[in-house]
Amino acid sequence: MIYTGSGGSQMKFHPLDRITGTDIVHGIVDQTGSFESSTFKTTDFLPMLHPHPQCGAVSYVLMLDGGGHVPLARLADREVYRRAMMGHYIVVPDTRHEEFLQHMIDFVWAHEDEIERAGDVLRTLRKAAEEIYPTSGPSLPHRDRMRKVERYIKNIYLHNYMDEHSFDAGALRKWACMQVLPDGRMIPDCSYRTIHRASDPRFQAPGGGQGRGNDGLRHKLVRLGRAAT
User: Fold this and answer.
1) Which of 39, 55, 66, 187 is most buried when burial is the number of CB atoms within 10 A of its CB?
2) What burial letters (b/e) apply to 132-164, b meaning 16+ CB within 10 Å?
3) CA 219, CA 206: separation in Å to the nearest integer?
4) Helix (H, G, I), strand (E, B) or coil at 10
């Protein structure tokens, strides 16, 4: 939970009375505990290295043919899983992930007695491999592969945005997601939202002064659109 944007910092609240990313993970674990086919563990969530490991976490899950799902973190060596997910918010059907899919098939086959619903998992993984990376006929266009991936793989993605009370300059120094200003400066996303957006000319209110959130930008875009016509 963040308090940012237009008027966010003016809301009446206690800075420590908030839901954090860790709270959400534990909430998911607690709330799915009574559903045998949908249980999550805290170890199913992996810190995202991009933009910063303290700012995001994700759990990718395999949707089984027979219903239900199993988190991918349980179907692979932990380090191999981490490398396969590095640098992506979604699963992209490329050579790296084709190799990871084969790794999961080998891993589940070798640990069949230790993995829940291993038979269903293997059947689903092999079917996914055949559909996404066919060994006969023409190769599939990227868009078609993406559609098949989206049917087999889902994710729960958590992102911790900063506000005035959770501002972390140490994390921002390693930030990789930037807002590019008209003058060419690049500012980390959370720093831009919390500190710099008020001075961005694209968000100035008509007639001078500070705009409010998207209102100033929307007004400018309308004016530009009318000038173009």
Assistant:
1) 55
2) bbeeeeeebeeeebbeebeebbeebebebebbe
3) 7
4) helix
pLDDT of residue 178: 84
The amino acid sitting at 138 is: P
Place of tokens 């206690």: 14
Q: Cα dihedral sign for 71, 102, 49, 146? A: negative
CA angle 102, 106, 112 (to 5 degrees): 140
Q: Which two tokens stand for residue 39?
A: 């249980």
Q: CA torsion sign, 171 to 175 to 180 to 186?
A: positive
Residue 105 corresponds to which amino acid?
A: I
- Grade residue 6 by pLDDT with cuts at 50, 70 and 90: low
One-letter identity of residue 156: I
- Whole-number Å distance between alpha carbons of 168 and 154: 30
Query: Which of 7-11, 17-21, 152-156, 167-171 has the highest average model confidence (pLDDT)?
Result: 152-156
**pLDDT tens track for 117-152:** 999 999 999 999 999 999 888 888 999 999 999 999
Tokens of 134: 């066919």
CA distance linking residue 128 with residue 143, whole number of Å: 15
Pairing of strands 178-180, 153-159: unpaired
| Average pLDDT estimate for 210-218 | 43
Q: How many CB atoms lie within 10 A of CB 55?
A: 24
Check whether the bond before 47 is cis (ω within 30° of 0): no
**Amino acid in the structure at residue 203:** F
* Global pTM value: 0.76
Residues written for the chain: 229
Q: Are 76 and 103 in contact (CB under 8 A)?
A: yes
